[in-house]
Amino acid sequence: MSALTIAQASCADDYDPNSMPVAKARAFIHQFLEPVRGTLRVPVRSALGRVLAEDVVSPVDVPSHRNSAMDGWAMRGADLKADGEATLAEIGSSFAGRPFAGAVGPGQCVRIMTGGVVPQGADTVVMQERAKANGKSITFAPGQKTAQNVREAGEDLKRGSVALARGKLVRPAELGLIASLGIGEVAVYRPLRVAFFSTGDELKSVGSLLGEGEIYDSNRYTLHGMLTRLGCELLDMGVVRDEPAALEAAFAQAAANADVVITSGGVSVGEADFVKDMLGKLGEVVFWKIAMKPGRPLAYGKIGGAHFFGLPGNPVSVMVTFYQFVRDALLVLSGANPVQALPTFAASCSARLKKAPGRTEFQRGVLTVGADGALSVRPTGEQGSGILKSMSEANCFIVLGDATGNVEPGTLVQVQMLEGLV
Ligand code: AMP
Ligand code: MG
């Protein structure tokens, strides 16, 4: 835990709690994030989506032997001519997994396939497209260079060197890389335990009937999805009514059982006051009005040892604030290092967008690639912060920075993808 407390940091800082810029809120939160300490050893496949808790050191050279990068013939480079053809005698073959047992002498060559061990004596491979075979007599085109098309042992990775550093998030490529070193088990950080609940007297859980003025709680479902994809261990605490005693009990129980507590609803003006007092008793929490849309109200703090994120109630705001503040924080807490900000890139906006300067907007967009290969984005239509369909139809956010005003068709805007590769 940082020596700085949340109360000290917020006092020391000259921020305006009524209009907190997105980047500043994110930076504030990051001062207090320390990765979990617990680690466990798991079979390689179970490391998918986890973070490496130790460097993976290569026990072998990769590749393990000098081998051919091409299908062709291996020979001594000195036997080839820069300005004319050279004809050599084929004395055997070296296929992947079936090396040539002998050595290649002057005037000789060996048929070789990609991945085949380059035989003793040989130092060069000529690809088959540059050769003519006449029985065992092979003629090579001019212009070859010694050492071409040969992959040296240890060229990709030297034995004893770090193949993957601690903090690396394990994706399919890492699973394959670890397996390629013959390693069967790795150390990973333990999963983050995240407790979450929805607040609101109007909320009913799926499975019960709605009374007058009631709605189904959808935020726990989107949170379930996002947290699961981040590899967290979930503690879903259901719906908690807007009653001080019930809320206090829920906060205390959540903080005692999890690394992170996430709630939705109850942090907007009017609702926040008694929650503010209660959280002031239980821990240290700051309440912001972020200069963003959607997702204006946001609370962050510590309740006991747990980090707390109080997200707004509106379903789209929950997702936007999760992606912009919680995602990065959970990755840092999970031990991931470095944690890269979600990338944005430019696309031409095909519609007019209404936008007020002075805040960052995350409009929901559909990014398409035109016949000319150019990226174009259009908004999904109604952008209300309660309209989850706008998220479902979208494949990206259109990120409009603080300084931006209305956007005219044809203007370049920044977009942020909602999905990556599997
Ligand atoms: P609040 O931030 O609690 O004032 O809520 C803002 C809006 O989001 C209100 O219209 C709530 O009914 C709605 N809302 C709050 N929590 C949820 C939830 N868990 N699922 C769906 N809508 C919600
Ligand atoms: Mg509410």
Mind explaining what this structure looks like?
The protein has eight helices and 26 strands. A hairpin with a 2-residue loop joins strand 8 (131-134) and strand 9. The protein is elongated, with a radius of gyration of 30 Å. Helix 2 (22-30) packs parallel to helix 7 and helix 5 packs across helix 6. Helices cover 20% and strands 30% of the residues. With 422 residues, the chain is an alpha/beta fold. The strands form seven sheets. It has a six-stranded mixed beta sheet with strand order 7-4-6-5-9-8, with no helix packed on it. A six-stranded mixed beta sheet has the order 16-13-17-21-20-18, sandwiched between helices. Bound molecules: adenosine monophosphate and magnesium ion. Residues 199-200, 265-266, 271, 313 line the site of magnesium ion.
Task: Give the arrangement of secondary structure elements.
Elements: H1 6-12, H2 22-30, E1 39-43, E2 56-57, E3 67-68, E4 72-75, E5 86-94, E6 108-112, E7 124-127, E8 131-134, E9 137-140, E10 150-151, E11 162-164, H3 172-180, E12 185-189, E13 193-199, E14 203-204, E15 215-216, H4 219-229, E16 233-240, H5 244-257, E17 260-264, H6 272-282, E18 283-289, E19 292-293, E20 297-303, E21 306-311, H7 315-333, E22 345-349, E23 360-369, E24 375-379, H8 389-393, E25 396-400, E26 412-417
Parallel strand pairs: 5-6, 13-16, 13-17, 14-15, 17-21, 19-23, 22-24
Antiparallel strand pairs: 1-12, 2-11, 3-10, 4-6, 4-7, 5-9, 8-9, 18-20, 20-21, 22-26, 23-24, 23-25, 25-26
The protein binds adenosine monophosphate (AMP) and magnesium ion.
Adenosine monophosphate binds next to loops.
